[in-house]
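Researcher: For the record, we're logging two predictions in this thread. I'll number them. Prediction 1 follows.
Model: Prediction 1, sequence and structure:
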Amino acid sequence: MIGLGTYAYFWQHSDRVPEPLSLIDAFEDTRAQDVDLFQICDYAPLERMSGSELRNAAGAARDLGLTIELGTKGIVPEHLTRFLEIAEVFDARLVRSMVYGPDSHPSLAEAETWLRHAVHAYESAGVTLALETYEQLATADLVGLIERVGSENLGICLDPANVVARLESPRACIELTAALTKNVHVKDFAFARQPGWVGFTYSGTSMGAGLHDYDHLLATVHPRERGINEVVEHWLPWQDDATTTIRTEREWTRATLEHLRSTL
């Protein structure tokens, strides 16, 4: 299933724009684009919502016919337990996280212990925990960690753009993680020379205009055949003013959806 996530609405949610979208606004916009999946990922207000606010948001998603996934950072067992509780409210079947959280930086041995502690509850609830590929942890170490824990409800959220900051190849990342992938983050990326030709900026770009060989990902991971959801997000730098930034963000979303739908 193709989905949108909060990172596709990064600036539209931001207080830098005159009328930022609420979470339910983003749900409605997602539905208006004929998309059936929304991933609430690293959306800070989610953890501050009361029980009634969570239920209202979940009810709005259900009324719109949206499937919801969740995303957070960190694998401290108590934190993963909290997100499993939120997942129950939204009937979410997947929680994306990262090994390192804002206040936790476990060793691989600690991470394994924490995941073993948490994963049984995820198994019982029928929820998958997908740990994202990113530059703070070598992809081989992430794969090894998940393989040692050895649960069908623990896998990888594949984002090959992140690992470039570790001087890893996106293509190699895809090939190393394919068998364990449970979720895919979809965005294109490119390098651009800085002014004066002194160094490069690594950033997002409109889908199909950058370096991401998405056909290779499709051929290697086979997400559609395996029922793995593909969630659209962006790395869009601020475009000098709110109007241009919002227009560009929406154009990138439209271009990515068109690109994905063209490959179905």
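Researcher: Logged. Prediction 2.
Model: Prediction 2, sequence and structure:
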Amino acid sequence: MNTKVSRLISLGAGLEAQQAELADRIARNAPGEGMHECAIPGVGLLRFNSPSQPTPSVYEPSLCIVVQGRKIAHLADETYTYDPLNYLVVSMTLPVMGQVIEATPEKPYLCLRINIDTALIGELQQQVTTPAPDAAASGRAIFLARTSAPLLDAVLRLVRLLDTPEEAAILAPLALREIHYRVLAGELGHRLRELCVIDSQSQRIARAIELLKRRFHESLRIEELAAAAHMSSSSLHHRFKAVTAMSPLQFQKHLRLQEARRLMMIENIEAASAAHRVGYESPSQFTREYRRLFGAPPRQEVEAARLAGRLAVGG
């Protein structure tokens, strides 16, 4: 056996050992299904014990690092499969269709979700050499990258701190800094750098998305979004769809329906009240669009989701 083959075998064994320890620690800290917040700010643990149905969800800017199982995210006609070999990066808020496709009670789907710190990205990019972002790039605000041993090593050190909260306040920021560095220095790090280039097209679209998030319940004109993004209306519409795979109006509709579902699921608000709170004037239009997105009328879909014990989450 030559040296190169031996090195590859050793590397593979190292990755498996890291993932096994990560799976054990995350499973202990996420004993039930769903998203679990932890003592480390900006970090969440996700667990599912069985495959799920395709469910609309809003993914916030984050790194999703799977340590066991497999999940897919659908955006328009594109599919992103993330598993222990490939982590998912979401650089802007995106409504997507998520589905856990590999999970059992013995080997549940386990994922670590880390919020992207754009301020930290901006600081690190001054020290990291990556290809300059292409101002005309048309890539989506979601992409996959190969999981590496150095990245997993930093993630493992972060997760170990869950058992020593007294140390987490001091050491977690260091581990998070390294994780951001590993992603930024990786094969697709330039996609994150785009967000920190002053007045880049990515940054302009991000501003439009933030405005939609803050005022999704209002009637917003495309001209108003364009002015906030410092773009013409036609340019905004074109670039927005290139990044998110939907128009600003479709994006706003997804945000409204997701928030209405949350209000009904978590706050037990009736469908008509939830529709009004998110900006719908017509209950029949709300019901029609809710059925189109979630596959069933509001009350029926929410009751079924409660029985299943699952609320759509990204990660």
